[in-house]
Amino acid sequence: MRTAEFNRKTNETDITLKINLDGSGKANVSTGIAFFDHMLTSFARHSGFDLDIVAKGDIEVDCHHTVEDVGIVLGECIKRAAADKVGIERFWDCSVPMDESLAFAALDAGGRAFLCYSAEFTYQMCGEFETAMAEEFFRALAFGSACALHVKLLTGSNDHHRLEAIFKAVARCYGKAYAVTGSAVPSTKGCI
User: Fold this and answer.
1) Is-contact 71 140, C-beta < 8 A?
2) 129-130 and 125-126 beta bridge pairing
3) What is residue 31's three-state secondary structure?
4) I need a surface site. Which of 24, 59, 108, 135 has the fewest CB within 10 A?
């Protein structure tokens, strides 16, 4: 089983995360930010990763530190659980509709971190979640997991639907890119 557990404690956050890349999409998430919990639960379901996340952060300030640091820890756990990446699919892209919204994501789990993100929102907040923090989360996730991630919101008018389509598209990419479908490292270099 490809599993990992990691705890990251700073003056701003204390995050413990467990992941099983070969799970069934089960989630036990507690960040203190209800909308973010909803998105992370959706991420687990649509990636097929089992996630246990307990995050305590200075959310009385705002959600920034908690959201970004969960992205860092999730990325680190994905990287650790995948280890040498033997047999993974590596590349995946996906479009996900959520009612009137449509999001596109593409992922290369090739060991080079990058984020290209294009999404605009009508409101600053969705529940207690700052919509601008989605980009920070995905940047932290991409860099923590050493992946090149491209995200583009193609259409939509409801910020909840927009964010959910984005999270689901990225989740599907991670789940499919990290699926073991072969027996070799998917690189001409022989390692990732």
Assistant:
1) yes
2) antiparallel
3) coil
4) 24
Domain regions of the chain by residue span: 3-177
What would the pLDDT profile of 14-49 be if each residue is shown by its tens digit? Answer: 999 999 999 999 999 999 999 999 999 999 999 999
Task: Give the global pTM.
Answer: 0.96
Q: pLDDT (tens digit, 9 = 90+) per residue, 113-133?
A: 999 999 999 999 999 999 999
**Nearest-angstrom CA–CA distance, 155 and 139:** 21
Q: Which of 73, 76, 77, 57 is nearest to 65 (CA)?
A: 57
CATH no., domain 3-177: 3.30.230.40
Q: Is the dihedral of CA 91, 97, 98, 102 positive or negative?
A: positive
Of 91, 85, 84, nearest to 107 by C-alpha is 91
Name the β-bridge partners of 4: 19
CB-count exposure of residue 84 (10 Å: 0-12, 13-18, 19+):
exposed
Strands 50-57 and 27-30: what pairing? parallel
